[in-house]
Design a protein that fits this description.
2 domains, 2% strand, Sestrin, cytoplasm, oxidoreductase activity, acting on peroxide as acceptor, 23 helices, mainly alpha
């Protein structure tokens, strides 16, 4: 059963005779069902001797057939071929959208209508439909609706931003989109082949992605006063929002272990590299409630240990709430706790932290490949404190974005609020839990890493609620997402479901995006005043 794609005769589908096409489609259906049944029988027969190589080849052959069929279901000009291809795909439960979930179906339809694809980011985010709806609406506006920047510039900026974190998944998506909207293929040979105006954006992209606290009004002035290569304020705000959007989306891509789509290079697998016991198909097949037990790096289920971790976390939350009710720390003590947490956060790194050398096909889209977060933190340099009371999103950033890029401030603000306030009042196996304390600790820890302080928050709570393995995961996803590993993903909150870990990632990316925006928009405000 190790036959390849060559056993199928695709040429029959090219016939103008509908009967010939019908016969060819039926032969393809029979071949796919035969392969599916074979692989299922191997999986379901525990004591059956099997040839691992043969099974792997069979699985790969099936995936290639399905990828070809998926392409036909979307692109074949013959309606009967499109419909039959889709029917065959559904018959083997690949990318099946259940009619029982009308909201999910509508979101998928909106995503496909806007992007011409149903990408794996959407399939993972659909764990949280309320957030996904806001995300898709915002991204659609940034990329396709009226705005200061031409369409091909928008996708190229997306490529530049994703490349800073070596996110080839996002880079490849937007390379295709860039070409689709008429972008010049020569620009894709390297940033030096793009217009000088875009090249000038490279420095802001670099600092914003890795050390946003270093952004000054001089960075802004250099872009706005570059003679014939100058940016307008409206264009720059559009660019800044795109850069922060794709820096954060790269974090989500690596944080959730998202793989390329089935028809793309490297996409012939349904198991994301950073997620265990988890199939991307499960999300759309209605398997939200399947047992999502985490396993440790040795592959053994740690039921008792992970159970007690949840109970301990619940108890800490209860104790902290009691302490809040009894006494309140002084402003001096709160400021001291912030500085301690900020300093400690600089040295939170994984034990297997290693340099990741960017591939040429990604690194050509940005300059200064050695520039990153790690260089800064390991030299013990000081991160200045950014007081939210002096400049915040709600009172300053929101209005500035809305004034220069109408409606976008509102869309981003809605997305921030949904991510921050999203809750199902559950924690692992517990229900009716107020998780606001935990969500705030995660959000504020990320901002603390970027030097952003809330005067009314007790940063001593962070060490109580977030253990080291969780901090390592947060720090890596937010600051160096290209270094996220499956072990990091598996090692935190081991009793929690995948949907809850995706929820964590939504908090991470929105807190990161807001932090970057605050520094960039404050610099723009200072330039304007």
């Amino acid at each position: 059963m190790a036959e390849g794609e060559n056993e199928v005769r695709w040429d029959g589908l090219c016939s103008r005779d509908s009967t010939a096409r019908e016969t060819a489609l039926e032969n393809i259906r029979q071949t796919i069902l035969r392969k599916t049944e074979y692989l299922r029988s191997v999986k379901e027969t525990p004591f059956r001797p099997s040839d691992g190589l043969s099974n792997a080849v069979s699985s790969d052959g099936l995936n290639k057939l399905l990828a070809h069929l998926l392409m036909l279901s979307k692109r074949c000009p013959f309606k009967d071929v499109r419909e039959k291809s889709e029917f065959i795909l559904k018959s083997v439960q690949i990318l099946q959208v259940g009619s029982e979930d009308a909201q999910m179906h509508a979101l998928f339809a909106d995503s496909f209508a806007a992007l011409g694809r149903l990408d794996n980011i959407t399939l993972v985010m659909v764990f949280h439909p309320q957030y996904l709806e806001s995300f898709l609406k915002t991204q659609h506006y940034l990329l396709q609706m009226d705005g200061p920047l031409p369409l091909h510039y928008r996708h190229y900026i997306g490529i530049m931003a994703a490349a800073r974190h070596q996110c080839s998944y996002l880079v490849n998506l937007h390379v295709n989109d860039f070409l689709h909207v008429g972008g010049d293929p020569k620009w894709l040979n390297g940033l030096e082949n793009a217009p000088q105006k875009l090249q000038n954006l490279g420095e802001l992209n670099k600092v914003l992605a890795h050390r946003p606290w270093l952004i000054t009004k001089e960075h802004i002035e250099g872009l706005l006063k570059a003679e014939e290569h100058s940016w307008s304020l409206a264009e720059l705000v559009h660019a800044v929002v795109l850069l922060t959007h794709y820096h954060s989306l790269a974090s989500f891509t690596f944080g959730c272990g998202i793989s390329p789509e089935i028809h793309c290079d490297g996409g012939h697998t349904f198991r994301p590299p950073s997620v265990s016991n988890y199939c991307i198909c499960d999300i759309t097949n209605g398997n939200h409630s399947v047992d999502e037990m985490q396993v440790n790096s040795a592959g053994n289920v740690s039921v008792s240990d992970s159970f007690f971790e949840v109970e301990a976390l619940m108890e800490k939350m209860r104790q902290l709430q009691e302490c809040r009710d009894e006494e309140e720390a002084s402003q001096e003590e709160m400021a001291s706790r912030f500085e301690i947490e900020k300093r400690e956060s600089m040295f939170v790194f994984s034990s297997d932290d290693e340099e990741v050398t960017p591939a040429r096909d990604v690194s050509r889209h940005f300059e200064d490949t050695s520039y990153g977060y790690k260089d800064f933190s390991r030299h013990g340099m000081h991160v200045p404190t950014f007081r939210v009371q002096d400049y915040c999103w709600e009172d300053h950033g929101y209005s500035l974005v809305n004034r220069l890029y109408p409606d976008v401030g509102q869309l981003i603000d809605e997305k921030f609020h949904i991510a921050y306030n999203l809750t199902y009042n559950t924690m692992a196996m517990h229900k009716d839990v107020d998780t606001s304390m935990l969500r705030r600790a995660i959000w504020n820890y990320i901002h603390c890493m970027f030097g952003i302080r809330y005067d009314d928050y007790d940063y001593g709570e962070i060490n109580q609620l977030l253990d080291r393995s969780f901090k390592v995961y947060i720090k890596t996803v937010v600051c160096t997402p290209e270094k996220v590993t499956q072990r990091m993903y598996d090692s935190f909150w081991r009793q929690f479901k995948h949907s809850e870990k995706v929820h964590v990632n939504l908090l991470l990316i929105e807190a990161r995006m807001q932090a970057e925006l605050l520094y960039a928009l404050r610099a723009i405000t200072r330039y304007m005043t």
